[in-house]
């Protein structure tokens, strides 16, 4: 813990930690020592971790990287961070992210962007660690902590993991409790670990999951021993390669990564089969209707009364002006864009044309996966991202849709509620990490982690 705290102080330039909690860390580290001496050894005992700012942490600022939550110190602890604490994990502080987890580069944060510790060869251009869990990815990649929590609504664990050479798993929807995690799009949001290795991910995931009566969508099903599942034996497993993920203009390096990964799984005894997931091309538009729709509803609670920031009012201002000024000052441009899109697609005249249609597309995407699994496929291999990490500012200044295209390989998994993992599997020609994604069956995290380990 002391080594991590020193490393964190020396790495302020990465802007990964937005709130440091050294006193809490040292107190928990001492408590972990005492537990070890007493012969207790819970899974995460004494392991220093960072917590994404989207998780409410008792008495510690939890702002979802938004000005609208400035000064908010929750009186409660999210279920996932409480479970980690109870399993002996040591919280080092809160990690940077895109505002309300909306983004793919960590550039929408009210704290400014986190920075990727990787560089393109000798080129000093600072790169994005990805988003929205950019601080988590940067901190793990730079060895500021041994693991970090992330959340993934459309790729926010898997894309930053791929951009930083780390491992990130989004579990099946319902595996982790969402209680105490600031809501973005409730039917898509899931927490998960970001770590250096698949084994670490298995251990940390085990401490994060489980049924929670405080989240009605959390599943009351048995939790396997994820670490014990890492046998390395994938003989006889069937891996599907979905042809619709072979996008036009896909960089050759990504193609090669994908075929190298396929060969590794084959060499380990898996059977490789081409599959079709025909509705893939509708996933991104459906996601960018459903996610903003749910966000616009979830973000209605930031009204200047119940949490955080309230704008200064002029004489004569009424409640409408208070809402307008507070939300205009408190939300950044990307969040405002999402609220406007979401409100539009839910409005009476457009609900059927956009929101209901997107929901129907979502059902078809889920059915594509169901059919592949029913035909005997155990896991699906795809690239995690369409490129390696891009330069800070390179995308943010472009059309927002260019940023949304980053999520093309990841959103299908959230729409279908499936588990997905990103594993670092190679470097591109400029020396930047690239990741492959494995998609598993519902509740199949143990198998998925075991298969992922073969790709490491
Ligand atoms: N980049 C996607 C978005 O902006 C996904 C974000 C996430 O998974 N939280 O919505």
From TrEMBL:
Q: Name one Pfam family in it.
A: Amidase
In which domain of life is the source organism classified? Bacteria
Reaction catalyzed: L-glutamyl-tRNA(Gln) + L-glutamine + ATP + H2O = L-glutaminyl-tRNA(Gln) + L-glutamate + ADP + phosphate + H(+)
A cellular-component GO term for this protein? glutamyl-tRNA(Gln) amidotransferase complex
Enzyme class of the recorded protein, top EC level:
ligase
Keywords associated with the record:
ATP-binding, Ligase, Nucleotide-binding, Protein biosynthesis, Transferase
Q: Which residues form a coiled coil?
A: none
The biological processes this protein is annotated with in GO are:
translation
NCBIfam families named among the record's database cross-references: gatA
* Free-text function comment from the UniProt entry: Allows the formation of correctly charged Gln-tRNA(Gln) through the transamidation of misacylated Glu-tRNA(Gln) in organisms which lack glutaminyl-tRNA synthetase. The reaction takes place in the presence of glutamine and ATP through an activated gamma-phospho-Glu-tRNA(Gln).
Its protein name is Glutamyl-tRNA(Gln) amidotransferase subunit A
List the source organism.
Pararhodobacter aggregans
């Amino acid at each position: 813990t002391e080594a991590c705290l020193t490393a964190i102080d020396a790495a302020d330039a990465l802007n990964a930690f937005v709130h440091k909690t050294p006193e809490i860390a040292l107190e928990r580290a001492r408590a972990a020592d005492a537990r070890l001496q007493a012969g207790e050894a819970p899974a995460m005992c004494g392991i220093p971790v960072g917590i994404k700012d989207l998780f409410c942490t008792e008495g510690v600022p939890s702002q979802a990287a938004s000005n609208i939550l400035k000064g908010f110190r929750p009186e409660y602890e999210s279920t996932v961070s409480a479970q980690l604490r109870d399993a002996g994990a040591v919280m080092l502080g809160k990690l940077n992210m895109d505002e309300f987890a909306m983004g793919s580069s960590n550039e929408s944060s009210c704290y400014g962007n986190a920075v990727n510790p990787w560089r393109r060869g000798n080129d000093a251009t600072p790169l994005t660690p990805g988003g929205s869990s950019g601080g988590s990815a940067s901190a793990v990649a730079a060895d500021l902590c041994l693991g970090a929590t992330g959340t993934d609504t459309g790729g926010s664990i898997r894309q930053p993991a791929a951009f930083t050479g780390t491992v990130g798993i989004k579990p099946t929807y319902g595996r982790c409790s969402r209680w105490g995690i600031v809501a973005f799009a409730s039917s898509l949001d899931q927490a998960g670990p970001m770590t250096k290795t698949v084994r670490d991910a298995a251990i940390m995931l085990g401490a994060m999951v489980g049924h929670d009566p405080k989240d009605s969508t959390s599943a009351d099903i048995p939790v396997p021993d994820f670490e014990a599942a890492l046998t390395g034996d994938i003989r006889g497993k069937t891996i599907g390669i979905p042809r619709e993920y072979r996008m036009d203009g896909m960089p050759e390096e990504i193609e090669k990564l994908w075929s190298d990964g396929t060969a590794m799984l084959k060499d380990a005894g898996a059977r490789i089969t081409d599959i079709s997931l025909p509705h893939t091309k509708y996933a991104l538009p459906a996601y960018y209707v459903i996610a903003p729709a749910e966000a616009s509803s979830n973000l209605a609670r930031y009204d200047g009364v119940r949490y955080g920031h309230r704008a200064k009012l002029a004489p004569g201002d009424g409640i409408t002006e208070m809402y307008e000024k507070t939300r205009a000052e408190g939300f950044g441009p990307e969040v405002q864009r999402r609220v406007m899109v979401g409100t539009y697609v839910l409005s009476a005249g457009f609900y059927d044309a956009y929101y209901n249609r997107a929901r129907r597309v979502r059902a078809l995407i889920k059915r594509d996966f169901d059919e592949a699994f029913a035909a005997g496929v155990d896991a699906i291999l795809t690239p995690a991202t369409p490129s390696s990490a891009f330069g800070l500012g390179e995308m943010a200044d472009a059309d927002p849709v260019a940023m949304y295209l980053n999520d093309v390989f990841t959103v299908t998994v959230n729409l279908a509620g499936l588990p997905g993992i990103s594993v670092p599997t190679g470097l591109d020609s400029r020396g930047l990490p690239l990741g492959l994604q494995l998609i598993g069956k519902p509740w199949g995290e143990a198998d998925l982690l075991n298969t992922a380990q073969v790709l490491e």
